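User: If only I could read backbone structure tokens as easily as an amino acid sequence. Underneath my words sits a plain record pairing an amino acid chain with its backbone structure tokens. This is the protein in question:
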Amino acid sequence: EMKTDLNLLLECLKYQMDCPLSQKEALITIYSICQQNSEASEYFREIGGLMFINDLAKSSVHCIVKEAALFTLGIIIESNVYCQQTLCTSALFEDLILFLIKKDSGVNLKRMSVYVILVLVSNNKNGQTYVRDTGCISLLLQLFRTTLSTSEKNPSGENTDPCYQLWSSVCSTLCACVNNPQNEDNQNICCSVFPYAKEWLESCTEPEIVRPICSFLGLTVANNSYVQKYFVSIGGLDALAKVLLELMHDSCLSHSSMKLAVVVTKTLDACIANNPAVGVVLAKYHTVSELLKLLSNETLNTGEKISIILTIGHCTEVCEENQCELLQNNGLPLMIQVLTESQDEELIKAATFVLQNCKQMTEQLSLKLYDNSLSVNNTEELDVQVRKRCLQDYWKKAKEILHRINSIEKEHDEKGVQGEILVDESSVANSEALKSHEVNPADPEMHTERTDNKVCCPQLTSKLDNQVLAPSVTSAARKDGTVNSMDAASTRQTEQRNIPWPVNELQTDSVPQSHSVNGKAACGKNQLHFLVTVFLPHLDQHSFCSEKTEKVRSTSATSSSHKMADLRCLGCTAGGLSLNSRTFTRMLQSCLHRCEHHRVILEAEERYRTELRKVAAADTSRSA
């Protein structure tokens, strides 16, 4: 039935040459049958109908017949590729040029001619070549520049103005001349009208004007670095950025403005895709932040989101200003959200592209900030680095000391250190010690020396999570029977009893090698100096007993012996016993009436243990 109808319609065209209205009606019926029907178009070509209509368009003297014939040719060419190949000749392009340049040709006839050119070059490399070689593309560019008047650059309503429709058709045809397949020669020719396009963008933001121009610009600069550079050089990128800024600053972003903003975004991306360095132009317009705002619009479809994210990626690929703007406007969390929530593969690739830029930019910015900080205050930065290294060295040395101390105590444990404290034996040992170190109480220097030599400092250890902590200070006091000797042994008040000691003050000098087994083997002056300066830098052997000395001074001479007996504790009477840190600490903790001297030591050790536990816990968490 379709074939029969086409045969009859073709006969009607041939025998109605004197009736243009009948021919027009026959042509309308033919294109309605062949429209989007490749089989019908192919059959009409086989019966000679395609060439007959081509000849009719050239030979008819009636304008309405010419227009209808050209439109029917366009429909058939668009529906069937074989028809396109049959009519794609330089002769047809030349005929179409004549229709366009004739002064008596109306706007509709020109528009139908442009439509035929459009379908001839669409997806057809040969057609793109013919349109250039015949000079047809130059004529199209002239129409692009001159078709619209000043008043027509601000259309409104349905855009039924014939001149605007012709201009819109020219824009679409120029897009087909440079794209699909990409034709660099035609792109290089079409860039000659960029200054006009830029001028229109600066003077008008109507969608009817901006949308066709953006489509033409985007396809003309696509994958052509030469054309992209030229467009940027004339300020075209600035014009596009301003249009986007104006659209986004609309108080209430309408749906049409949002869609137009996406079109402008795609054009921006095409302009910088092959030259990411020119993206610096967009930094002064804060384009990246505007794109992030646009991306947060919930009405966007997946394709639009992909276009926006790719544009952000190209903006931030090499431009540090845009990179900083992306980070400052929470672009990184937004990209991660898109990556985790989306199921579209292309969208995930686009988000990954931006995240890769974020990784590179973070590394580059970090290095740059580090270099800048060194240039501004190089000495201070180096000091910080030195302190960090020193702290690591101190920790290493401290661990070595602790290991050695722990090994020594373990040896003493193996020799059978007694855990019980015998008060009677300690009293005898202390009495012998006093006899062996008897001095003149009136000689303060000699008494001070005796005090220093008699102070014993068994080393204490503490274990937390199988780690040996640093030692604290303990000592064994001597037994003294006179008030004068006590006065000479301690001469000043302690003022900084509760000051904590820094870990980085640990030193390795004068490390104790053994414990006191009896009174004669008690720790000497060097060991006491080491432990006091390391762990209690503000408390020495004199200040330990300061408060006790003050109490003694406040008593009368007649009751001195009785008061001294009251001030002595288990730690004071255990000087002759073989003790280590654990047994000595347990002994002090079990004593209900500790002297001021050993109370200070026990409190210092507890503070030390607490601080070391905190440091060990923090170190463990950082290692994890």
Summary: The two ends are 82 Å apart (CA to CA).
